[in-house]
Specification:
By secondary structure, this protein is of the alpha/beta class. The strands form 6 sheets. A 7-stranded mixed sheet has the order 15-16-17-14-13-19-20, with helices on both faces. It has a 6-stranded mixed sheet with strand order 10-9-8-11-12-22, with helices on both faces. Helix 15 links the parallel strand 19 and strand 20. Helix 1 packs across helix 8 and helix 2 packs antiparallel against helix 4. The longest helix is centred in the N-terminal third of the chain and has 22 residues. It is globular and about 70 Å long.
């Protein structure tokens, strides 16, 4: 088991392979984003550690895949129970590791992590297969679904345990074993969950956790010939590398990637509800959610009113110490990421954009302990051309851009005018208009008069550069299994 050394006041994590914690020779520093200080050391795993984890997963596969779905579901539910019992500890750890507020981790990340296990424990029991008769030939056809084998799972740093469990739960519920690699920047809650595996009844080798970077651990995992399936959430650029690396093996891929999500606000929208929700959709979790709104298109007749009220509301969205329950946002993930987000704001100003609030306009009043943290206030920009990189590229921070439009046709063109296609929100009371927009917008998810309302049974994923494949109840079941058609002549 990993220990906290008396000499070094930081946590040292170990890999979790074959049901045991295995020390690693090399480590990476992990920072507390709210202070800018190293507080944890994460294994810098490579091909050797991945090989050991794949072997452990292969060894566990025959027995685990022969368990009934009911037996596996029981174990998933137990794991959910154990996470919920330690909700407060997990929330504190997620906040310290990622920079988000403790409140967000306690009310969103950790409850959803437990729910992912419960949802797939239930969902896997309610899937059916197909059957057809060909009486004139005396033939019966039916389909069966079998687990694929060892699943390679790579999860991001923005919603660490939330998105890791979104992958582990369906993978093991359907009878696969897994080798998972969380982001090296946010590994602590994954390591904490490993400590619950034995008590939950997860057999050794069913879930293996290899910590490290994408170029070393991730590369070894996606290029391993005995890992037939990879589920990845992260950047579009990394997904291109994964696609190239896995191509020689014809692996099954599920890729959930970036977004540059539009909100389209018509003049007949309920402005009060729209502003309240669009503030959340733009700035929640420091804007570090792939589904966050980063382009807001407003019908010209209400543009001035909307912008005024929206900026006033953005100024009330408080950024500061993650432990303070009065704060809406904590710190961004890293110094490098903060600098990247700031560079987009600087670019906007250089192109003639107006920064109404936030970065460079409103000073943050931070406690002394957080003076070196990676904080940035909610930032609203207007006056940019649609071709600007600020309007085209994923910023992944608390920055949103507001622009006017005149017609429905123009709103569709602007909404679709980027390479991404993950999510969109539409604000209107006109039912016909809402249905037309939903059909025409190039996005895997379209919310109307709301945001981030999710039925986990429904497909989740994007089009264009926002990803390949879908995940959710039936879609995850299909992705994590192979289908066979069986024909029997009698």
């Amino acid at each position: 088991m990993a220990v906290t050394s008396q000499k070094a006041p930081f946590l040292i994590l170990d890999n979790f392979i074959g049901g045991e914690f295995v020390p690693c020779d090399k480590h990476i520093d992990s920072y507390d984003p709210s202070t800018g200080e190293v507080y944890c050391r994460v294994p810098d795993s490579g091909a050797e550690e991945v090989e050991a984890a794949v072997k452990a997963a292969q060894k566990a596969f025959p027995e685990w895949s022969s368990h009934s779905p009911e037996q596996r579901a029981q174990i998933l539910n137990k794991l959910a129970d154990l996470i919920e019992e330690q909700l407060s500890e997990f929330a504190q750890a997620e906040s310290r590791d990622q920079g988000k507020t403790v409140t967000f981790a306690r009310t969103v990340d950790i409850p959803r992590s437990a729910h992912n296990f419960r949802f797939f424990a239930s969902s896997v029991l309610h899937q059916t297969t197909d059957c057809s008769q060909m009486d004139h030939l005396g033939v019966l056809n039916y389909t069966i679904r079998c687990p694929v084998g060892v699943a390679g799972l790579i999860s991001p740093w923005n919603l660490p345990l939330y998105l890791l469990t979104w992958k582990i739960a369906p993978a093991i519920a359907t009878g696969n074993t897994v080798v998972a690699k969380p982001s090296e920047m946010t590994s602590v809650t994954a390591w904490m969950m490993c400590k619950l595996m034995q008590k939950a009844g997860v057999p050794p080798g069913v879930v293996n956790m290899v910590f490290g970077t994408g170029p070393r651990a991730g590369n070894a995992l996606v290029g391993h010939p005995d890992v037939p399936l990879v589920s990845f959430t992260g950047s579009t650029l990394t997904a291109q590398r994964i696609t190239e690396r896995s191509a020689p093996y014809c692996k099954k891929l599920s890729l959930e990637l970036g977004g540059k999500n539009p909100a389209i606000i018509f003049a007949d929208a309920d402005l009060e509800q729209c502003i309240e929700t669009t503030i959340r959709s733009s700035f929640s979790n420091q804007g570090e959610i792939c589904l966050c709104t980063s382009r807001i298109y407003v019908e010209r007749s209400i543009f001035k009113t909307f912008l005024e009220k929206f900026v006033a509301a953005a100024r009330k969205w408080k950024t500061g110490a993650p432990s303070d329950p009065s704060n809406n946002n904590g710190a961004l993930i890293s110094k490098e990421h903060l600098e990247k987000v700031r560079s987009f704001v600087a670019l906007a100003k250089s192109e003639g954009g107006v920064v109404h609030c936030g970065e460079g306009v409103d000073a943050l009043d931070l406690p002394p302990a957080n003076a070196n943290g990676y904080f940035m206030p909610a930032t609203v920009i207007s006056g940019l051309s649609d071709s600007s990189a600020v309007m085209q590229e994923e910023i992944f921070g608390p920055v949103t851009c507001v622009s006017p439009f005149d017609t429905e046709e123009e709103a569709v063109a602007k909404g679709n005018g980027v390479r991404y296609g993950l999510a969109a929100t539409v604000w209107s009371r006109d039912v016909g208009k809402v249905h037309r927009m939903a059909k025409r917008l190039q996005a895997g998810l379209v919310w109307t008069n709301c945001w981030l309302v999710r039925d986990l049974n429904l497909p989740f994923g994007g089009m264009k550069s926002s990803g390949v494949g879908r995940e959710g109840g039936k879609d995850s079941y299909h992705f994590f299994t192979e289908i066979k058609s069986v024909t029997i002549k009698h």
